[in-house]
C-alpha cells in the first residue's frame, strides 16, 4: 500500500474516505466517471468511455502495480464519489513526470472533495524523490478545475487555442498546467525572487 486511507470532512459536513483504488472498485468507479463525464469538461464521450471500460480492471491494475503510479478514490458511505489518478511516463527521459486525471461525481462537486483528494496526492508526490513534475490538461472554461489547480501551485505552461471541439461544435482552448516541484520549493523559500 502506498498511502494510508485518510478521512476528511467535506464543506457540508459529510465524512469522506480517501483511499487507494482496488480492482473491486471497477463497477462503482465507472458509474462515478459516467456521472462527471456529463459535465462535458473532459474530452471523452460516454460511448468512448464505455469502450475503454471493457478493460477497466486492467486500467486499475496499472496503478496498483506501478511503483510511482497512484489511483485515489473518494468514498462516502460505501459509494465512490471521485477519483484522482497519476500515471508516470514510462520513457527514460520522461519518467520524472506524471500526468493527472480526476473527476468528482456530479452530485458532489464544489464541496471541497477535489481539493482534499489532490492534496493527498500532492503530499505523496512531494515525499517521492522519483517524481519532479506533475501536469494535466483542462478545458479553458473549467472554472472549478483551473481554480483548484492554481490553488495547488500548478501554473499555466501552455494553451492550445481552440484545440477542443465539443460535441455541440464549440471550440475551447486546451490549457496545459504544470507543477514543477523544484520551482514550487523555490517560490515558497524565495517568494520575492523572480525566476
Ligand atoms: C474540476 C473538479 C475535479 C473540481 O473538484 P471539486 O471537488 O468540484 O472542487 P472543489 O470543491 O475542491 O473546489 C475547487 C475550487 O473551485 C471553487 N469552486 C467550486 N465551485 C465553484 C463554482 N461553481 N464556480 C466557481 N468556483 C467554484 C472552490 O471554491 C475551490 O476554490 P477555493 O478553494 O479557492 O475556494 C470537479 O468539479 C469535476 O469533477 N468536474 C468535472 C470533471 C472535470 O472537470 N475533471 C477535471 C478535468 S481537468
Task: Explain the overall architecture.
The protein is of the alpha+beta class and 195 residues long. It has a single domain, classed as Aminopeptidase (3-Layer(aba) Sandwich), CATH 3.40.630.30. The protein is built from six helices and eight strands. The relative contact order is 0.14. The model has no long low-confidence stretch (mean pLDDT 96). The site of coenzyme A has 23 residues, from strand 5, helix 4, strand 6 and helix 5.
β-sheet strand percentage: 25-35%
Oligomer: single chain
- Strands ordered across the widest β-sheet: 1-2-3-4-5-6-8-7
**Unreliable spans:** none
- Tell me the number of structural domains: 1
Highest CATH level, the class: Alpha Beta
Order of helices and strands: EEHHHEEEHEHEEH
Bound molecules: coenzyme A
Can you tell me the CATH superfamily?
Answer: Gcn5-related N-acetyltransferase (GNAT)
Alpha-carbon distance between the two ends: 37 Å
C-alpha Rg (nearest Å): 17 Å
Number of strands: 8
Amino acid at each position: 500500500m502506498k498511502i494510508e486511507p485518510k478521512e476528511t470532512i467535506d464543506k457540508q459536513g459529510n465524512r469522506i474516505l480517501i483511499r487507494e483504488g482496488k480492482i473491486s472498485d471497477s463497477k462503482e468507479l465507472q458509474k462515478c466517471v459516467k456521472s462527471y463525464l456529463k459535465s462535458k469538461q473532459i474530452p471523452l464521450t460516454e460511448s468512448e468511455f464505455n469502450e475503454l471500460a471493457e478493460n477497466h480492471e486492467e486500467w486499475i491494475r496499472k496503478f496498483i502495480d506501478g511503483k510511482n503510479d497512484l489511483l485515489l478514490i473518494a468514498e462516502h458511505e460505501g459509494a465512490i464519489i471521485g477519483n484522482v489518478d497519476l500515471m508516470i511516463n514510462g520513457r527514460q527521459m520522461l519518467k520524472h513526470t506524471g500526468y493527472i486525471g480526476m473527476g468528482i461525481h456530479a452530485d458532489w462537486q464544489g464541496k471541497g472533495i477535489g481539493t482534499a483528494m489532490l492534496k493527498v496526492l500532492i503530499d505523496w508526490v512531494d515525499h517521492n524523490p522519483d517524481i519532479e513534475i506533475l501536469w494535466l490538461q483542462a478545458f479553458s472554461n473549467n472554472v472549478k478545475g483551473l481554480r483548484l489547480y492554481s490553488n495547488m501551485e500548478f501554473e499555466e505552461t501552455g494553451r492550445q487555442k481552440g484545440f477542443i471541439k465539443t460535441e455541440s461544435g464549440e471550440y475551447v482552448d486546451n490549457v496545459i498546467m504544470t507543477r514543477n516541484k523544484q520551482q514550487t520549493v523555490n517560490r515558497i523559500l524565495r517568494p520575492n525572487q523572480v525566476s
